[in-house]
Design a protein that fits this description.
By secondary structure, this protein is mainly α. 72% of the residues lie in helices and 0% in strands. Helix 1 runs antiparallel to helix 2 (43-64), helix 2 packs parallel to helix 5 (130-151) and helix 3 runs antiparallel to helix 5 (130-151). The longest helix has 34 residues, at 2-35. The protein is elongated.
Length: 158
């Protein structure tokens, strides 16, 4: 099971990097072609979809690697047990918030089913689907973080 999870993590990270490279390349090419009076009308729609997916998947990768921005000026001065408790509370609140994003994101996908991009005949639901998928992935990551906090032995405790 660990190999499957690790493989998924590598795939997710590769996908985020690829999406970022595609966004940069697409926007650059579109800008250059627009300069020469050959605009690519669909480039904005594609870039928007790639950006949404890259943002939510990238947030999960950053959360898993503890690379999200945080301020621990006061928390770092507290005892280790208190720090762990506060982290568990924080991750629990994050799970609550992400649950709302997942729930309302699914509703938004259903509502946007008939809406299509201006230049493409593709449903906008494919973009809005990034929110609930990313939220569910981050809920799983937050749950794993809570489990890690609960399983850590503190020095000096029995």
């Amino acid at each position: 099971m660990k190999r499957i999870v690790d493989s998924f993590y590598r795939w997710e990270e590769f996908l985020v990097k690829t999406l970022l490279a595609l966004i940069v390349a697409l926007v650059f090419i579109a800008a250059v072609l627009r300069t020469f009076k050959y605009p690519i009308n669909w480039s904005v729609d594609i870039a928007q979809g790639l950006f949404a997916w890259g943002t939510f998947l990238g947030a999960d990768v950053a959360m898993r690697k503890n690379k999200l921005m945080g301020v621990d000026l006061f928390i770092s001065k507290m005892p280790i047990k208190t720090q762990r408790l506060l982290k568990i509370i924080n991750y629990s609140m994050i799970i609550g918030f992400l649950s709302g994003i997942a729930f309302f994101g699914v509703k938004l996908c259903v509502e946007n089913y008939a809406r299509t991009f201006q230049s493409l005949s593709v449903s906008y639901s494919w973009v809005t689907l990034s929110a609930p998928v990313g939220a569910v992935l981050m809920i799983i990551t937050s749950g794993k973080k809570i489990r890690e906090m609960l399983n850590v032995k503190v020095k000096g405790s029995s």
